[in-house]
């Protein structure tokens, strides 16, 4: 089973991915908990070129072009799918990924790239069984990650996050595997909502 957790920065993805992995482990499953960008050479390149390119890089996404940025995320993902996700699923393991190609659609679309081009570019990425979209207002996510962002650029980041949130909600109408979870609740309540969705998915097998 392949489960993806998506949402804007600070939505609670890594918190919930970890709890879900523990839930599966308690039930005796072998779990691979992973994320994008990955920790491989491609992921490191993305962090260097796209995510930590100084103030400018963080706000506008890149000193490199948005197209090159999308291609880097896709290259990282191609390696992720080929070397970890596919073999793990074939071995019968549960794979939980903190972000996947829906992040590329939501974020790179918010940067102004064409959605259909992004979907085509990511066509190699096997479709997950379930995508949990942790949805919450940007104001709340900003409070949660306050320490992580550059305060003076706060508003610009918030504006981008708002577009990303709207994009995720639009994507949920197009991709039936995306299930929206209200991420404004407590960690425990959100976990229970996610477990209910997972149990429903398991009952269909
Ligand atoms: N439901 C929640 N309510 C309040 N704070 C939360 C909740 N879930 C996570 N947090 C906190 O918010 C911050 C961001 O959570 P995190 O799981 O790292 O988000 P993400 O992986 O989506 O960026 C962390 O400090 C975390 O402890
Ligand atoms: C996977 C992915 C992430 N991103 C963005 C979303 C986040 O703002 C950022 C980094 O992701 P994040 O989950 O914050 O990773 P980390 O904290 O480990 O560096 O990259 C994209 O723009 N496109 C993508 O395809």
TrEMBL record:
- Residue positions annotated to bind ATP are 7-14
One Gene Ontology cellular component:
cytoplasm
Q: Which GO terms describe its biological process?
A: dTDP biosynthetic process; dTTP biosynthetic process; dUDP biosynthetic process
- The superkingdom of the source organism is Archaea
Do you know which InterPro entries this protein is assigned to?
Answer: P-loop_NTPase, Thymidylate_kin-like_dom, Thymidylate_kin_CS, Thymidylate_kinase
Catalytically driven reaction(s): dTMP + ATP = dTDP + ADP
Q: What class of enzyme is it?
A: transferase
Gene3D superfamilies listed in its UniProt record: P-loop containing nucleotide triphosphate hydrolases
Q: Ranges for the Thymidylate kinase-like domain?
A: 5-194
Q: Does the keyword Plastid apply?
A: no
Query: Keywords for this entry?
Result: ATP-binding, Kinase, Nucleotide biosynthesis, Nucleotide-binding, Transferase
Give the EC number(s) listed in the UniProt record: 2.7.4.9
Instruction: Give GO terms: molecular function aspect only.
Output: ATP binding; dTMP kinase activity
Describe the family membership recorded for this protein in Swiss-Prot or TrEMBL.
Belongs to the thymidylate kinase family.
- Cited HAMAP family: Thymidylate_kinase
Cited NCBIfam families:
DTMP_kinase
Q: What is this protein called?
A: Probable thymidylate kinase
